Structures are given as C-alpha cells and as structure tokens.
IclR family transcriptional regulator
Amino acid sequence: MATDIDSGDALLTVSRGLQVLRAFRGHRNPLSNAEIVARTGLPKSTVSRLTTTLMVAGYLRHAAGGRHFELGSGSLGIGHAFLESSPLVRLALPFMQVLADELNVSVALAIRDRFEMLYVAYCSGKNIATLRLGVGSMLPMESTAIGRAYMWGLPKEEREVLFGQMHEHFGEGFQAIHQGILSSFAELEASGTCLVKGGYQRDTYGIGVPIRAGVRKTVMGLNGGAAVVDADFTKVRAVIGDRLKRAAPELERILRDLDCPI
C-alpha cells in the first residue's frame, strides 16, 4: 500500500508535469528544454526527466528538427474532450460566432489561470486577419483588455487579494502595471468597456468587458480584437465597444442556468 510520502512524491511529480505542459501556453510554438526551464523555474535535470516521461506518455512530441518539443496527441485529446463535454462552450459558441461575424473581429471568452487569462472559447470573423490565437491560448492578465475587464468585474475584496498576489509576483514592476490597470478601470467605469492596444501582440487591439456566468456568477472576460494597422480607435470604441457592452448581458442570459464549475 502506498505511503503518505509516496503519495506526496507522486503529487509533486504530477504538479511539475503540469507545469511543463503549462509552459506551452497555447502559443503553438515548439520549446526547448532550456526554454521550459526559463518558463517554469524548474531545475534543468527535472525538466529533462519530465519531457522524456511526457513524450513516452504521448503528451509531448519532438517538433521538426528534433531538438524542440510541442504538445502531443495526449494533451490535445484532453483539450478536445473538454470542448466536447463543456456545456459552457456548447452554449456560448453559437452566440460568439454570430458576434464575431457581425463585427468582423475575433471574440474570446476567458477564465483566470494564475496571472493569465485562459481562452476557453474562441471564434473569428470570416475576413479577420489571424491573431494566431485559439482555445487554450493564455494571455497576460495584467496587460490585456480581457484580463483587465476580468479584474474589474471581481468583487472588491477578491480584487484586492489578487492585487496583493500580483505585487508579490511582479515585485517592483507592479507599480507601473497597477497604473495601467487603473487606467483601464477608469475607462470601464466611464464606458463599460476597456480598450488596450498591443497588449499581447504588436499592431493588435483588444476591447474587453466582464461577464458573470451561470448560477454561481463566475466572473469571466469577454473580448473582441483584431490585428489592424492604423485602426480608428474612436470608431472601434463606438461600434465594437458598444456592441460588446450589449453582448455581455445577452451572453449572461444564455449561460444563466449553467450550474457546474467553470
């Protein structure tokens, strides 16, 4: 029979394995062991052992050239299983696709994962330039419209706890980060949406609103964005921002009877 120590070691191994998989963050870019070490903070020997184990299990595979890794069919299978079984995704996607086509933008719905926003649903308009994003993409919470809208939507006490955690995580850099967040909060207070230019990729914009999904009123971020050079941001705020602001309560109504963890 397994001892508590054995169980603890197994849990630590699983936790570290998940850290390695998290390092890929939905970017779809192959990573070397050194890059995984930099992203996870795990020792080089641990990463080397875990990537080998995850390859044998089918969760990683060698990318073209053989020196970098990418997610394997095992990891993708977990993601597809989530998409197929998630009532939230099933309910939200048709509405989001209509919205994306209407506005000719990408539309994303995201939840918080530590200090990032994880896309759980994503649609693109028919003629939009690709942002190279999709379900599973993880964007920085502190510098994107979807992340700032999410934070603004949190209850005040929960938001203050999160700010404390971010201060500890980002250290001296948090002061500048906080000022950017507060600027978006002021925009959300005034207009109900916030717009961020180049918060994740150059020559892109995102405009975000919070939503509260399901019976549990889980706070999520809803975002519209595109890759556009020299966009007319006054028009973006007036047209896309206004439509997203009206879309948020519509999506909340679609999801209002959802009674499961998100």
